Amino acid sequence: MSSHTASSSNGGNGSDDSGAPRRNSKRPKYSKFTQQELPACKPILTPRWVVSAFMLIAIVFIPIGIACLLGSRDVVEVVQRYETECIPAENRTNKVQFIQSNASKTCTISMTIPKRMRQPIYVYYQLDNFYQNHRRYVKSRSDDQLKSVSKENDTSSCKPEDIATGRGAIVPCGLIAWSLFNDTYNFSRQNLPLTVNKKGIAWKSDKEKRFGKDVFPKNFQGGGLVGGAILNDSIPAAW
Question: From what superkingdom does this record's organism come (predicted)?
């Protein structure tokens, strides 16, 4: 018993010998960053500090909020729906048939502006139940075709509005161009016509880089279905 104990003791002492091989350690290299020992600021949030901070935020943002509120009150927006008013009473049960007929679609609506509107005055339209974020609709276009006339026949992603029977590729192709909203507006005030400026509404990056100036409409509305407006083939498609 005693000799076995001694041998174990001697073996333990022998492990401290500098000549003995040392086991490779997996301990990472010590640094204050990895051990999260860097100096840090740990403020004590006393009630005085909290109240003071909120008071400072209030002093800064209350004037900003008042300025935004006053600015929003100067905005005048008038919404006028006409999808029912501009259809004769006898055709309101079948609006699609009336729209597709050859009857006159001219409609005059009187609008009352509650406050003075400062220029510039912007006119825009809004469509309901028209899902432009549908995957098939979003993909139905060809950016390459709109960028260069040499890519005129690149219509692989434009189905079902890609090829006009017997006439070749449709430019611009795809459902996005095909479903172009075709209502037009004229405005007047006290029987005096008001001019609507339709220029300068496209992004500069789109006009100069994304769409080509030499791409003109071709075979548009020449497919099996007809929808949207008719494009002028003497004006570039993206202008």
Answer: Eukaryota
